[in-house]
Specification:
mainly alpha; rod-shaped; 3% strand; single chain
Amino acid sequence: MVGEEETSKQHLVDEMKQAKDEVSTLKDKLAAINAEKETWFSKKAEISEQIKKNISEIKELKDKRNNFTNKVKDLKRERDTLNSEITTNIKKIVAEKKEAGVPVQKEEHGFHGKRGPSVSKLKAEIDAIEFRLETQPMSFDKEQQIRKQIKGMKKELEELRSKTKVSEELKAVSSETNTLKKKANTFHKDIQKMAKESQDAHELLITKSNEVDELKKKEEEAYQKFIELKTEYMKLSGEMQERSKVFQENRQRIDGVNREATKKKHQEEQEVLKEKREVVEEKISKRKKLTTEDLLVMQRGN
């Protein structure tokens, strides 16, 4: 019976030791898994923050690109308006020069008539001929011929004056046209600059968008790894609790066995003591000599 109790107790001790070792091993695993789990969680949080930053930059780049695009549209409208005015002015110059009979020659900065005799020079010639007609004697036929020449020259003078007036007016239009061309060229340069800024912003936006897509994949991978480790952590935590429970239960059972054994031993000692006391009491009743052991028995009994 005693042998069975000892065997049972030893079995509980072995189980308790095994459970304790398993709990210790599981604690080490849990610590390692928890550290790795938190590492992946931190990585996921870091990636999420980077995604947030990129999305903010993408929004700014979109606003910047749209702003440049709108400026390009506005500048193109203004440039087209100027080009339309330039075209209208050029057509006006050509039409009026043709109407006035002024030869048209296309040059780099506008349209100019071919140079002929000036108004002042032609008028001086007419005055000189008229002076000669009035001061020099000549035949009737010669006089008529000169008067006819003067009449033709005066007609030419009026036409020249008319052409000169038209040329002056067209010169002003040509000057205005050149100014408009310079302004249009400035607009064109601004358009090219703004278009490049818009394109650069768009390309950077595409790059950032691709980065966000890649980061989202990495974020999902980090999150899934975190979930896997968390699941494993919970599973091992449950196992550790079960083994801890086994350890505590076995410990309580061993404590119970030890208490029972102590109680039994005490009872047995009391029985032995009682028997010894009875023997000593019998000696006393028969007036026999008591030994030192007999005295110790009586003392313990008391």
